[in-house]
Every structure is written in structure tokens, then in C-alpha cells.
Specification:
Catalyzes the deamination of adenosine to inosine at the wobble position 34 of tRNA(Arg2). The chain is 40% helix and 17% strand. By secondary structure, it is of the alpha/beta class. Strands 2-1-3-4-5 form a 5-stranded mixed β-sheet. Strand 1 and strand 2 form a beta hairpin. The longest helix is centred in the last third of the chain and has 21 residues.
Length: 168
Amino acid sequence: MPDGTPNPSPKPSEPAGNLFMEEALRQAELAGARAEVPVGAVLVHEGRILAADGNRTLELHDPTAHAEVLVIRAACKKLGSQRLPDCDLYVTLEPCPMCAGAISFARIRRLYFGAGDEKGGAVEHGTRFFCQPTCHHAPDVYSGISERPAALLLKTFFKSRRIQDTDL
């Protein structure tokens, strides 16, 4: 902006916000095609995608290679900082405790996520990480963004896994 203040990221109902979640969904689809749990994430800085990826835990033999952690690592490297206070994270599934911790430590400004995760989520379910007194930083949280397509990706993936398991 002309006065030097940063452009705020769009609200999820605005076209650019939808585009960011669409890219996160695309990354989730790519992860699913690699037989990874289909979760995708996009990290946005000043209205532009800084990093985008999907889960890679199997591919990298790394249980921490969740989509959120991968994009946070990539963005920190690109910006040369361990803090991302002017960045927004779009992710297709409610972050787990590990990812919520990474989001907090990176000081991410806003978190937008699609499907809730009653079993493993840590934002609106489970530990509710950002509500804990020991939490270093809590981003603004917007849930239910493109929830249906995100949930459908996961449901389809796990249904196909169950079918494969019964075929063995």
C-alpha cells in the first residue's frame, strides 16, 4: 500500500482467499496421488504464495513432514527468518498438535483451514493448542474454508485404503 502498511490477506470469502485454498486442495490431491494422506498447505506473504506443498511423510520417511511444517520450513528459508508474522497459512485439514506448535513458534498471523479433525486436530478439537496458557502465539483462526471438498478428499482416500486392506 502507498502508506507502507502491508496489504492484509483477503478474507476467505474473497476471490484471492478462495484461490489460495484451491491451491491447498490441489496440493492435497497431489499428496493423495503419492499415497500420502491428502492434506495440502499454502503459505501466503503479501498476497502471494510463498510456499505450497502436501504431506510427504512416507516419501521422506519423516513423521514431521506434514504439509504445514513443510511450507513453514520453505517460507522461513526463503525469507531468511524463523518468524513469519506477516504470513497466512491455508491448510485443508485442522492442524495437529505438532503443526499447531510450529504455527505458534513461527508467529503466523492467520490460519485458514478446511475440514475439522475430531480425532487428531488441535485447534478446535483435542488440545485446542492456541487456547493454552503456555501457547507463545495464537494466530487469528478461520475454519470451515472449502470444508466439503477437503473432507471429501480425506473420506475418499481412507475409503479406498479400507477397500485395499480387505482385498489383501
